């Protein structure tokens, strides 16, 4: 069942269209990430859903109820901002209990709920403290507890981790995901961090210039990017400029590569042939393997867990791609600058996009 239905939503600021005709369904209990570069409209979409910045046109239904014209106070959500936005003059207990007190809940019930929430976010003893006495990660946990206090049907997270340092961010990623799973609360998180989206989301909505490029599970988005933008924005990708010469063949500077049949593109179309660096096959190539090319190692970058090599394709003017080599492979194959070797581009790992 859908928790949220967004239909034909647009947001204009004067002549500028920040969101153009967005439609999206979010299922009950789902964790969805809005992912995209700065300015793509993800915060605008989140704020429209909250009613903080109403849409110019279009509708939003929550659990079948039309909330399109309701003020934030009449909508059912809790929200966490990047900047924590805690009340500095209130203790943690009063921050977390704020929404419940506004609802005129009894003192004992508020006390019990606040204790429960602070335990849930791992801060059972922080109650008497003020926000300034807490670290950034602790403040964000308090903000999370405050957002969940009234047991909202929808949790909205606006870049909640981006102000935190890397280690805290990593830990909170797991904690928020675990909490969301335990509570089963429908959650939307805005992020520009692809790793965050890939690790946390059930589904990712990739946005670009006020429009949705693709909606899919992290695996779908990574493995089968629907557009060149998604292929480029999520993960690393090689783009080789070529021409489609048959439904399942792309010619790149004299080499013809087999790929899966391309329905939407006519032969003769200028295309980009794409492959991820980790999908370039670099060892144990059978003699009859498809898409074998001779390459020369032109650059070798140590990235920690592996080395990323830039490979110049022999017999071409300037066709090059990157490929990943584990340290074992580097040793076994004797990979070094100038080394010549054969690699293969598995047809099922190739993606083709109109150029
Ligand atoms: P970021 O990650 O940088 O926050 P975003 O994807 O969340 O980016 P939005 O904040 O949604 O982007 O903004 C989308 C576009 O709308 C941007 O080009 C922004 O400049 C524009 N915009 C946002 N708010 C306003 C406003 N109040 N008036 C005019 N333009 C606005």
From TrEMBL:
InterPro entries cross-referenced by the UniProt entry: AAA+_ATPase, ABC_SmlMolc_Importer, ABC_transporter-like_ATP-bd, ABC_transporter-like_CS, AminoethylPonate_ABC_PhnT2, Mo/tungstate-bd_C_term_dom, P-loop_NTPase, Transp-assoc_OB_typ2
The record's annotation in PROSITE patterns points to: ABC_TRANSPORTER_1, ABC_TRANSPORTER_2
Residue span, ABC transporter domain: 4-234
Q: A GO biological process this protein is involved in?
A: quaternary ammonium group transport
Where does this protein have coiled-coil stretches?
none
Name the domain of life this protein comes from.
Bacteria
Keywords in alphabetical order? ATP-binding, Cell inner membrane, Cell membrane, Membrane, Nucleotide-binding, Translocase, Transport
One term of GO molecular function:
ATP binding
Entry GO CC: ATP-binding cassette (ABC) transporter complex
Query: What SMART domains does the record tag this protein with?
Result: AAA
What NCBIfam families does the entry give?
Answer: PhnT2 (TIGR03265)
- What family does this belong to? Belongs to the ABC transporter superfamily.
Q: What is this protein called?
A: Fe(3+) ions import ATP-binding protein FbpC
What lineage, starting at the top, does this entry show? Answer: Bacteria, Pseudomonadati, Pseudomonadota, Alphaproteobacteria, Hyphomicrobiales
């Amino acid at each position: 069942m859908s928790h949220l239905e967004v239909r034909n939503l647009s947001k204009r600021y004067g002549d500028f269209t920040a969101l153009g005709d967005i439609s999206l369904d979010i299922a009950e209990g789902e964790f969805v990430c809005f992912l995209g570069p700065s300015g793509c409209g993800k915060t605008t979409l989140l704020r429209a859903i909250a009613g903080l910045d109403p849409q110019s046109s279009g509708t939003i239904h929550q659990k079948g109820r039309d909330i399109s014209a309701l003020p934030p106070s009449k909508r059912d959500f809790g929200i966490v901002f990047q900047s924590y936005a805690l009340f500095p003059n209130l203790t943690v207990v009063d921050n977390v209990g704020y929404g419940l007190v506004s609802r005129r809940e009894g003192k004992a019930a508020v006390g019990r709920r606040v204790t429960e929430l602070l335990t849930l976010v791992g801060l059972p003893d922080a109650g008497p403290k003020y926000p300034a006495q807490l670290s950034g990660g602790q403040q964000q946990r308090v903000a999370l507890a405050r957002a969940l206090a009234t047991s909202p049907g929808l949790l909205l997270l606006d870049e909640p981790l981006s102000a935190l340092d890397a280690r805290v961010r990593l830990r909170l990623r797991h904690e928020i995901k675990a909490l969301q799973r335990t509570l089963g609360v429908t959650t939307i998180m805005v992020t520009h961090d692809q790793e965050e989206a890939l690790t946390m989301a059930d589904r990712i909505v990739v946005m670009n210039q006020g429009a949705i490029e693709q909606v899919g599970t992290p695996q779908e988005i990574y493995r089968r990017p629907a557009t060149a933008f998604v292929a480029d924005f999520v993960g690393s990708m090689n783009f080789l400029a070529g021409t489609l010469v048959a439904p399942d063949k792309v010619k790149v500077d004299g080499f013809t590569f087999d790929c899966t049949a391309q329905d939407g593109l006519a032969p003769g179309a200028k295309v980009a042939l794409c492959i991820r660096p980790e999908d370039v096959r670099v060892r144990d190539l059978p003699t009859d393997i498809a898409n074998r090319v001779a390459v020369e190692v032109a650059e070798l970058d140590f990235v920690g867990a592996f080395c990323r090599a830039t490979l110049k394709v022999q017999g071409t003017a300037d066709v090059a791609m990157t490929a990943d080599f584990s340290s074992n492979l580097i040793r076994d194959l004797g990979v070094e600058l100038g080394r010549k070797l054969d690699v293969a581009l598995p047809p099922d790992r190739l993606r083709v996009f109109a150029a």
